[in-house]
Amino acid sequence: MRPIDALDLPPDLDGRHGTNRANGRLQVAADTDLDALRAWLARFAETKTTFDNYRKEAERLLLWSVLQLGKPLASLTHEDLLVYQHFLADPQPAARWTADGGRKHPRHDPRWRPFYGPLSGASQRQAMVILNVLFAWLVQAGYLAGNPLSLSRQRARRARPRIVRYLSPELWLEVKTWIQRMPVQTAREREHHARVRWLFTLLYLGGLRITEVGTNTMGRFFRRGDENGTDRWWLDVMGKGGKERLVPATAEMMTELGTYRRACGLPALPSPGEDTPLGLPIGQSLKPLTRAALHRIVKDVFSGAAQALRARGEDHAQRADLLEQASAHWLRHSAASHMADQQVDLRLVRDNLGHASLTTTSQYLHVDDDRRHRETDEKHRIDW
């Protein structure tokens, strides 16, 4: 069991003579399944999260095809892929496919396995969507004659649901209150408190994704004069898919940045091109926090705020449960929702968050169900 980086397939399983190979002109330099997969994955090399997800699904399918079916990927049929989808729900034998105890091991570790346990229904569907993208590209590249997944029943497209993973203003206040009450007795506690406050400021006021916090630096803050000659600060964010956007660095944000930098022993304002990460480890290190570390910090805050809510009585249990589900991305959703509630022009919200279109931004036009019910009851009447 090896990752595709270190995989070496025998001639009868490398796809060179697969039954679904195309006879036309190849558009990529790929003689084998491994060559073809690597050519496909190379297209996503600049976007780490996408690359990792796509490699994971392609790798799982190739290993299953070779080890479980004993046939190359280039010979898989529609029926094979139906079997594979059932396999995803419970990869067996577990000793072969699933990491012991569900632990993640490095890819070079002999204990590495392609699965950490059974996949949920949503994860199964996501896997098949990615594989459909793979097969469609292999056909387009002239490597395969047909896409075995194109025969799957296509469900009618449904309107995308409104975003519901967000914090109401009342619940957001609970989170801020908990952060303000974090302990600050020791130097380490004070530094951690300053980091948490800055991180939540950045995620909420800037609407940044957690990966953007980990990959951008303080040197991307800059100021320029507007048409009235007033200097305004901006944050030039390198975002999803390598797209750049300018996020307004409000007076609040710059105040919080200065407070955080001073807590880290840095000047209040960053210098142009400064490579200090947006989020720093505790201590003297200037290495950027990993996505996992940033995620853990945010989850710990939500968990602490939820426990504080729950301690106030059973009446708060439902709201505490909701907080415990929250993640960093909820802050981005909350920022968009709260801006929309405050009547900020949707075009401005779109540009602040880096959405491709207003269609995406309009998902945030919603209010709490309780408020919707109350206002409908009060304001929408027939008055017989």
Automatic annotation (TrEMBL):
Q: Where is the Tyr recombinase domain?
A: 162-377
Protein name per its UniProtKB record: Tyrosine-type recombinase/integrase
Q: Where in the cell is it found?
A: Cytoplasm
Question: Which biological processes are named by the entry's GO terms?
Answer: cell division; chromosome segregation; DNA integration; DNA recombination
List GO terms (cellular component aspect).
Answer: cytoplasm
Q: Report the coiled-coil segments.
A: none
An example of a GO molecular function for this protein is: DNA binding
Per the annotation, which location comes first and is thus the protein's main one?
A: cytoplasm
UniProt keywords, alphabetically: Cell cycle, Cell division, Chromosome partition, Cytoplasm, DNA integration, DNA recombination, DNA-binding
User: Positions of the region Disordered?
Assistant: 1-21
UniProt-listed InterPro entries: CB, DNA_brk_join_enz, Integrase-like_cat_sf, Integrase_catalytic, Tyrosine_recombinase_XerCD
Output the Gene3D superfamilies linked to this UniProt entry: Intergrase catalytic core
The Core-binding (CB) domain covers 31-139
PANTHER family (UniProt xref): PHAGE INTEGRASE-RELATED, TYROSINE RECOMBINASE XERC
Q: Name one Pfam family in it.
A: Phage_integrase
Compositional bias (Low complexity): 1-12
